[in-house]
């Protein structure tokens, strides 16, 4: 269903502090910027060493280094894959080998089992989850929506309580 792809090594001396494509190495924090990219925008990825088991998603082209797993697939949308991996994060982290540098093996990822709906259903699920994510994490959208709901609830109960 998906081919697990290891990123390509890049050395720190090749990185720029602010110009180019973001580089992900062994955490979800950008290591620096590189003049080339090896992954397109809208890519789910999984950290395989260091912060092993962390799930990431990038909306821009990026460079995934050798401690990052990405997934080549035509039957799973990348955003849907991101949500799937997030839902399995405890299972994934349980597969991390604890050592001086924690590691997540390719075989541990390849052995994950998912229910896979058709792409159009994946897109609908992603739209719902994205909207929910926005409402719960974006104060500029989530908070006004919550305030609006509370005002409607208040008006409803006010009217009900005052109907003798």
UniProtKB/TrEMBL annotation:
The keyword DNA-binding applies. GO terms for molecular function: DNA binding. InterPro entries: Restrct_endonuc_typeI_TRD, Restrct_endonuc_typeI_TRD_sf, Type-I_RE_S_subunit. Residues 2-148 form the Type I restriction modification DNA specificity domain. SUPFAM superfamilies: DNA methylase specificity domain. Belongs to the type-I restriction system S methylase family. PANTHER family: TYPE I RESTRICTION ENZYME ECOKI SPECIFICITY SUBUNIT, TYPE-1 RESTRICTION ENZYME ECOKI SPECIFICITY PROTEIN. This is Type I restriction-modification system, specificity determinant. It comes from Streptococcus acidominimus.
């Amino acid at each position: 269903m998906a081919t697990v792809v290891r990123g390509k090594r890049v050395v720190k001396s090749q990185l720029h502090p602010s110009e180019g494509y973001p580089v992900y190495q062994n955490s979800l924090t950008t290591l620096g910027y590189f003049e080339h990219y090896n992954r397109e925008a809208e890519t789910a990825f999984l950290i395989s060493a260091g912060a092993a088991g962390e799930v990431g998603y990038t909306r821009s082209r990026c460079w995934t280094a050798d401690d990052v797993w990405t997934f080549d697939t035509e039957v799973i949308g990348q955003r849907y894959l991101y949500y799937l991996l997030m839902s399995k994060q405890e299972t994934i982290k349980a597969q991390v080998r604890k050592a001086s540098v924690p590691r997540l093996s390719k075989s541990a990822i390849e052995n994950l089992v998912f229910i896979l709906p058709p792409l159009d259903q994946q897109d609908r699920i992603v739209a719902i989850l994205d909207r929910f994510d926005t409402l719960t994490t974006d104060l500029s959208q989530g908070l006004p929506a919550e305030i609006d709901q509370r005002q409607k609830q208040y008006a409803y109960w006010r009217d009900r309580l005052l109907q003798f």
